[in-house]
Amino acid sequence: MIPRRHVLSMLAGWLGPALVAVLILLPLALYFSDFLRAPARTISLMLAPGELERLGRLFARTTALAILSATIALVLSVIVFAAAEPALARRRLWPFLFMLPLLVPGYFIAIAWIQWLGFAGTLTQWLGPAGKWLPNALYSIPGVALVMALKNYPLALGFIYIGWRSAGTSSVEVASVLMKPGRLWRLFLFGWIRPWLGAGWLIVLITALLDYTIPMLMRQHVFSVEIMTAFNVYYKPQDALALALPLLAVSLAGAAMLGRLLSRVEWPVMARRPCRLPEIGTISKKILNVCACAVAIGSFVLPLVLLMRMAGDWGTFAHVIAGGRDQIVTSISLSALATAAVLVFSAGIATRGLWRRGGQNAIARTLTHPAISAAAMLVLYALPGSVIAMAFIRFYNRPALGAIYDSGFMLPLGLAAVNLPVAWLIFHVRLSEIPKTLVELEALEPIPPARRWLHLILPMLTRPALLAAGLVFILCMNEVQTATLLVAPGQETMSVRAMTLLHYAPDRLVAAYCLTAWTVALVPVLILAALARLGGHFWRKLVPHHELD
To answer: For residue 300, is it left (φ>0), alpha (ψ between -120 and 50) or beta?
Structure first.
């Protein structure tokens, strides 16, 4: 018996995919069709005298920087996980604390490290002649890769955490009795969670390829910087598209590998009680703790302390808040609007393949197939924010769509497109834990649609939705590439303002603005977390027989 359709089921099943297809995928498809209609012009630009050699060097620098950054980030994530594994097993709050560096803007970390190790940096000046080599090391490919790894290692750590929570508790406990701790750790890292390590490395690789702020501030010419310069400074869309093609080739190849890897991973239900790995030796444990503390200091504590020291007294913050009220209101409102759109889009796409109806035609079943949705999201994640913004400008900047282009909704739409894959991945991980047998049984149960939403779908999606909302809101507040190209007159966001101040404002004002922007982005998330906790208590009282897992 097929359950009756419900308005919420129809909205979740069709509204999200339809809006994504019309508002996001269609402009991107038409933008790249320009190259297919006239490929000779783009290729001629790439084959101009001296241009091919320059692109070759740019390609080598970009890929080397991304590969090195992803490798360093993976090593750092393994170190942090090995040091923090006992705390992660005891307290549920710890995983969120280790995600804090992910919430810090890239320009935040880059500015702090430049002030620490740059040519006029604090440590460089303090060491005198002995510290002259520090700026050269910082602005080199390994130095920039290290700073990018400190920003992105929580992504790899998140995948390690998922693999650890999904590992069989009984298997690990039996193996801990039969094996030595060192051998069990090697089996755990290079056996049980090896696919998750590969997925973490790939997602950091793609993120590093698309990063714009850190390479730009640290004087590394990579494709993301060149694309923004060609379009935003010289306004040469064709040159920007030509520069985007080599970057897209690498990022899309990484996304294809990531999708293939995730499709082969088994998605067991995460255990409430994760497996406990054996304790490491005392000396090794101390070394790991020191390294983990160094990672935490370099990725979060050091940038915070240095920027507070640069800002000076509290009068600077008062001046920034008084002069930036419009940017604060604009940033919060536009980011909240983009976050709401992302939740609608991602929830609809993720749940569409879970409760598909048998009466659909072949075209509908194909378009809403989970594999097709996953491929579309991975391709969208592999696109730079500048390319997405250029596609939207090309599509919506025409007389027929002038009302949309001039409405001020271009920036929320661009932010939603850039961050949609992040929320989709969170929903996808949660929904993939559900055994297919339970879904089939639920589809045969003739229960009212409202009761199905209240007792099954809503509790299942509550925690992923809250996590996605907080993370996407922070990412929207910190976005620079898309915001720079799509911001409307009078719509300047705090991230765009902070990057603008770097060129002419004093250091103390830049530091105060960076700290203010980060605080303004974090406060709504903390309020959301507090309301979610109160809502969880209210839900348990309302439905005492059902617990939010």
So the answer is: alpha
